[in-house]
Amino acid sequence: MALFFSLLISVFFNITSSIPSGEEFMQMLYKKYNGVWYNDFTFTQTTETYRNDTLIKTETWYENGILPDKFRIDFGDQSQGNFVIYRSDSLFSYRSGELKRSMQQDNDLLFLLGGMYFYDYSEVKERLRKYGFDINKGHENSFGGKKVFVVGAINEDEVSNQLWYDSEKHVLLRMIRYAGDQKEDVVFEGHQPVGKAWIESKIRFYRNGKLLQVEHYHDFRSNSKLPLELFYPRSSASSATTVSAPQINIRDMKWLPNSHQFWTKDAEGIYLGDAANLETKKMILGVSDLKSSGLSSVVEDMVWSEDLNSVLIYTNSAKVWRANTKGDYWLFDLKSKKGRKLGQGFDPSSLQFAKFAPDGRHVAYVYKHNIYVENKASGKRYQLTKDGTTGIINGTFDWAYEEELGARDGFRWSPDSKNIAYWRVDASKVKKFKMLNNTDGKYPVVTEIEYPKTGEYPSDVKIGVVGLASAKTVWMGIPGASDNNYIPRISWAGNNEIMVMQLNREQNHGNFYLCDIKTGKANKVYEEHQENGWIAPFNVFAWDDPWWIWMDDNQSFLRAHEKDGWLRISKISRDGKKQEIITKGNYDANMLAFDAKNKTIYFEASPYDATERYLYSIQVDKGDSIRVTPQKFDGTNGYVFSPDGQYALHSFKNIHTLTNYRLVHLPDHKKVYPLTDDEFRKPNNNYDLEKFSVTTIDGVDISGIMAKPKDFDPAKKYPVFFYTYGEPASTVANDAPTFNSFGAQLVPKGYIGIAMDNRGTPSLKGTAYRMAVYKKFGIVNARDQAMAAKEVFKWPFIDTSRVVVHGWSGGGNMTLNLMFRYPEIYKTGVAVASITDQHLYDNIYMERFMGTPQENEEAYVASSPVTFAKNLQGNLLIVHGTGDDNVHYQNAELLINELVRHGKLFEFMAYPNRTHGIYEGQGTSQHLSKTIIDFIERKSPPGAR
Known about the structure:
Layout: H1 22-33, E1 40-51, E2 54-66, E3 70-75, E4 83-87, E5 90-95, E6 98-104, H2 108-112, H3 121-130, E7 138-143, E8 146-151, E9 162-166, E10 172-179, E11 182-194, E12 197-207, E13 210-222, E14 254-255, E15 261-265, E16 269-274, E17 282-286, H4 287-292, E18 301-304, E19 310-320, E20 323-333, E21 338-341, E22 351-356, E23 362-367, E24 370-375, E25 381-383, E26 392-394, H5 399-405, E27 411-413, E28 419-426, E29 432-437, E30 445-450, E31 460-467, E32 473-475, E33 485-492, E34 497-504, E35 509-516, E36 522-529, E37 549-551, E38 556-563, E39 566-573, E40 579-581, E41 590-595, E42 600-605, E43 614-619, E44 626-627, E45 636-641, E46 647-654, E47 657-665, E48 670-673, E49 687-695, E50 701-709, E51 718-723, H6 741-746, E52 752-757, H7 767-770, H8 780-792, E53 798-808, H9 810-821, E54 828-832, H10 843-850, H11 853-863, E55 875-881, H12 890-901, E56 907-911, H13 924-939
Parallel strand pairs: 51-52, 51-53, 53-54, 54-55, 55-56
Antiparallel strand pairs: 1-2, 1-13, 2-3, 3-4, 4-5, 5-6, 7-8, 8-9, 9-10, 10-11, 11-12, 12-13, 14-15, 15-16, 16-17, 18-19, 19-20, 20-21, 22-23, 23-24, 24-25, 26-28, 27-28, 28-31, 29-30, 31-32, 33-34, 34-35, 35-36, 37-38, 38-39, 39-40, 41-42, 42-43, 43-44, 45-46, 46-47, 47-48, 49-50, 50-52
């Protein structure tokens, strides 16, 4: 705490009579000060250090900062060169002018007390989460005789990280946070106004109730235009000794095309860097450059030309289904630093997926379901498709394709920049689902969405290639009914052919066609079939990722697919006549990247523990697989690769370690940045995590994560909270430092938290494990959970009379199946946004695992929770948003009718007009959390007995 910088925020807004959530409070705070907060500051600090509440020394420090991420503290005589510097996520410590130590560490108080107003709000929320503040929580309280609003905790919560604000003066009075078993309590006093903000004249720091330090501030000045050299020292006091490493926030790095160069941004501008030489990092566009061209909105993303001379800046975005894929694009020339907005005259926030032609001369984008091209030099615009309507979609996708096939960006430039291949989705004949909004006016508003439910025909999809010069489309002659098959992916295979993958309606057979773009003739070169299973990407939420990678100058391609009982990587010739399995061991290999220069495949695997993830490599033509991730990173490892496969952003975490990041060179995994020893910080959880596995009576090995209260007593019995999902889209038993958000609130009160992955989840346990639920959805996976619970019940500290199960979406489906099929096991259930009848979900997802209801009606009935609602014996809470466009509210209504028919009592909470995430509207997240926690504590009380 000794190095904490302390400025003070004031919140200049009126809190309404209704109590806001913590996030609403922080959002109002952000909106008030974003763009108007002062940029720099300097002050003198008198520091009193205490031991056992006794003063042991007094020092004078001199402090300077430039927001949002630069901060310097000089200790004592400034000429001696003893100081520390915070820059972005790094700390540099100097003694006698020489750099003695550097490490990955950011200054959270610098962020909380001013820096946050210089970032996008999405980054603010993410950082607050990283610092351990759950901003969904908030409540009113009192402190020192004053009314306060607390962000980060609910009422009577004394174990969560939290920020206390004076409700009248709107200044920060107190911060409480935990580091392991250490409680840090910071009290802010003597606030004085500084322009529109405040500075506290005194701060007291406590650790575990004992006074640690008192800081007094004076001589405060702001907007002094501090020189950047203060934070990038080439000398300590007078002589040049050390040059610091460049400032990089590796979590914000994004790769440029076809290389290992990257870009980042901060409050001052946009930077270009090279992973092979970080010293070359330079600013390419400053904030003043953007504003001089008329761009004042926040930069959300960027698209680069291949020659790196131009960029497209994406801003002012709007949501389409899950993500903000509509917005404004600005074209900037990096030499002149001049820019202009694309789509002049078009509606604001309406362009999609703008991208440069490979030669950089044109930019293409989608506007109102049509594809347009603009000449970069002249600005002249050409419309390439003209039939786009609400139901005819060119260059992007409908709801079902995006949700279930990870497809958003629906067009691809040819390598020679002369043609564009694109999807045309005809959703005009797809039946529309109507959602009723009763709350935004006197009369209901009906929203219609093209939503093909099980047994209904999907959108009619075909692939066209349109010439830039002719503006004429040639349609690819893919065999089969275009409204009874799927086309999840395409890619160019040179300038004159494209590869098209077609899946049949049941998604267990895939055909790969090479198509001549001039004639449209399609030649099938390769096919796959999955008996008693399905063909799908391992991660369906990797949006627009290719499902194969070309190599050998497009003469062969790499593909990850289920083969011989495992997820294998194969090399397949362009004509499909040669097929070679590359990964041959008894493990799953999920392909991540390909280094074409060295013919090296990088893939994700975990042969010995399915809760973990590691990076492996294998050369295409020789050798065995090699683990690339060093042994010290024991847990969950993630990688974001440079396009050339030679560098990666590496993230690491496990149940004992917070997520940390580094830039590494491959294949040696040598750390490039930060230039410090790896620091593994423990999470500030008020519960302990451990991994376990059980073997069910059916001989199935189930992996799990258990959360225990800090004061766990093995001699006593605790209620158990099962958090579940259990479907092919996700796992929950992951080697990670946090537990389910509701469980994290319950466990410290005296519950045991359990999360387990049954068969049917995307666990790295082989094909048979993942596909055991085929046409037995809701049956096999529910039995695995129930039988694993019985094994958990053998532990002496489990109270089998207080058993809670909770899940959301597919996890809600699982919760209902467990409550109805195994009422003797599960006593209390909370099902949120649940599929209650498999017939009611979309056809791509459900038919992938169940076939069509026309052919498998009995299986649909047998797998649906509503079929067994009559068996309910325990306590059930059903929660659903009436505006859910994913799992429709009709699911809840159907189940309610069935429960009523059988005289079953239950509790129900509907959230008007909320979508699948149930977060929209003031106080929603807080109310949902309180509703669920209250229900569980009433029905299965907390505490050891």
